[in-house]
Amino acid sequence: MKLAGIELRRVTMPLVAPFRTSFGTTSVRDVLLVRAVSDDAEGWGECVADSSPLYSPEFTDGCADVLRRFLVPALLRHGEMRASRVAAALGAVKGHRMAKAALEAAVLDAELRSRGESLAEHLGAARDRVPCGVSVGIMASVAELLAAVERFVAQGYLRIKLKIEPGWDVEPVRAVRERFGDGLALQADANAAYTLADADHLARLDAFGLTLLEQPLPAEDLRGHAELARRVRTPICLDESVESAAQAADAIALGACSVVNIKPGRVGGFLEARRIHDVCLAHRVPVWCGGMLETGVGRAANLALAALPGFTLPGDTSASDRYFAADLTEPFRLEDGHLAVPTGPGIGVSPLPERLSEITTWTEWLPARGAPNETGDRQRNCGDR
Ligand code: SMG
Ligand code: MG
Questions:
Q1: Looking at the annotation, which residues are catalytic?
Q2: Rg of the chain on CA atoms, in Å
Q3: How far is the CA of 356 from the centre of ligand 1 (A)?
Q4: Probe ligand 1: pick from 13, 15, 16, 19, max atoms within 8 Å of CB?
């Protein structure tokens, strides 16, 4: 595939309600989109970084900068490009996995669209719909939390994930378990808010039959997670700690986790995400698809991934209306606790043109050498309205 250029684009999308985790609160998504344009197709990728580097070291402005200055030039240096070669083409740049993932996703989408193949088919999907859970933020009171969980259960979500932090853990988990009974699939996510010194406290969560406890300790602390896993009965799941298939293999070998949350953005792309799935499947470690408050563009691609055979637990792949009053694409709707896996070429959805131009705050076109409209200077503007 010959690329004509790459467009970077920022869109702003308010959430229907603020989402609070142990590291901060998100009220508005400031999303960086990548569009790869080839001779006969265009493809979309969504960068999942948040505007502040609190979940991980990456953040939206940083991603835009590293894409513009290093990643896109490294990609466009090659005359011919295909998605399976993107990671190698970007390999000299260390880290920056969310930025790399967005670029690879855009190239992959363009490539698949040009040959009429869906991402789900390409990745090896085993089902046409995926079971969905929902991640419920930290609230001002237990009463408010119970009301939120009640709404999600009524909508049909198949499992609830509670965000926890020191001071908001045992009591909210107990309250939800007592109100909704043992039949509710329930799990908790600490986003690295504890230390191993909290092991006895975290063991109190064992009483509530959680499916898993996600990322209790700092990302680097694999040994601590292994020790914690010996001291609590709740299965430990890793999110922030796993950035590659090699790290997943290490975490499993160390006994640091017995479940893995897979997010393509965190691990540098859908192809690495699939390798993590393969490693986990080979070790009989269940995986599920995480979420980063994606728009319909990122969600569509996540659904294709979540359809792989090793994804045996419901993901944080919730319906569009859990996040936005108006999504960037046709909305994904929950049916019977599931979302349908898109079947069209590539990710199977596209941004709605009017919606896209309405919420765009900035675009930049980075042309390939010799491509049409190369002017020597880059286009920067405030939206394309
Ligand atoms: O997309 O529904 C979603 C969010 C799921 O809880 C979620 N994501 O650590 O798993 C996680 C968090 C990270 C993003 S918080 C802004
Ligand atoms: Mg998490």
A1: 163, 263
A2: 20
A3: 23
A4: 19
Give the position, in ligand 1's atom list, of the atom nearest the Cα of 322. 2
Q: Which residues surround ligand 2, an ion (CB under 5 A)?
A: 189, 214, 239
For 259, phi and psi rounded to 5 degrees? -145, 150
26 sits in the region (left: phi over 0; alpha: psi -120 to 50; else beta) called beta
Residue carrying structure tokens 């609070």? 20
How far is residue 181 from each of residues 149, 176, 192, 345, measured CA to CA in Å?
12, 8, 27, 42
Q: What is the mean pLDDT of residues 98-104?
A: 98
CA-based nearest residue to 164, from 23, 321, 370 = 23
Strands annotated E in the chain: 3-21, 24-38, 42-47, 129-131, 133-136, 159-163, 185-189, 213-214, 236-238, 259-262, 287-289, 338-340, 360-367, 379-381
- Per-residue pLDDT averaged across 225-239, rounded? 98
- According to the model, what pLDDT value does residue 373 have? 57
CB 278 within 8 A of CB 110: no
DSSP code string of 194-258: --GGGHHHHHGGGGG--S-EE--S-TT-HHHHHHHHHH-SSPEEESTT--SHHHHHHHHHHTS-S
Q: Taking the model in full, what pTM does it have?
A: 0.95
Q: How far is the CA of 53 from the centre of ligand 2 (A)?
A: 15
Place of tokens 């930290």: 138
Q: Which tens digit of pLDDT belongs to each residue from 297-321?
A: 999 999 999 999 999 999 999 999 9
Ligand 1 pocket mutation pick from 47, 51, 189 by most atoms within 8 angstroms of CB: 189
141 φ, ψ (degrees, to nearest 5): -150, 160
